[in-house]
Amino acid sequence: MKIATWNVNSIRARLPRVTEWLHDNNPEILLVQEIKVVDEIFPREEIEDLGYNIAVHGQKTYNGVAIFSKFPIEDVVVGLPGDDNDDQARYLECFTGGMRVASIYLPNGNPAPGEKFEYKLSWMKRLIDHAGKLFNQEEPLVLGGDFNVCPSDIDVYDPQRWENDALCRSESREYLRALTNIGFTNALRALNPGPGQFSYWDYTGGAWQKDFGLLIDHLFLSPEASDRLVGSGIDKTPRGKEKPSDHTPVWCELEGIN
DNA sequence: ATGGTTGTGTTACAA
Fold this sequence. Notes:
25% helix, globular, DNA-binding
């Protein structure tokens, strides 16, 4: 069972990159963020033609998340529980392929401090609460997505330059630790502890060419999932192609599920 | 150099 997460920065602008990557890598499950499209005009056929079922939580212009799975999709949860007034499409959860998965697009939070940073922290608090409930169900669970948090300085090309950014501030890191301290395993870091492993490079200033990257896309596994972790990595290939997303896929391989 | 680039049922704002 190969499961990956990818912030595609518009599914319509990125459709050639996404279908190409699915064809070449054939993951069972892909968690997708920033689709930037409403459900009604999501390009379903192109993804379904590759053998995937699709769950979508779309939004016009901004945000939007989706889940592609080779297995039937059941028990879909649309939106992060805990605030009926939150209309930003940043969370989608389902049961598929013998496990529960969530596609997460955590708020960026800049500029910080400010209203957007407060929204980020309150959203993280809700995520911690909900993740705790899911954790207690004791089933294979993968929380994956663009968390917009670099867990530690090793995940940043220039930590000093980023220390006051919402992606690296101590509050963001403390909340992310509170989430992982529930008992989740970082699928990438469990097998790849070294520096220089990034999932995002800004479009500006030649960041990709200089390898000025950040690690903000993560896969967090419940014990029932991490017991079966046999591989993980970052696939930098799509970031180097024409018209790329500014993010690239992070993946893990789980043995013995399906 | 308060810059740079990409995306949007685009043309102001988010990332």
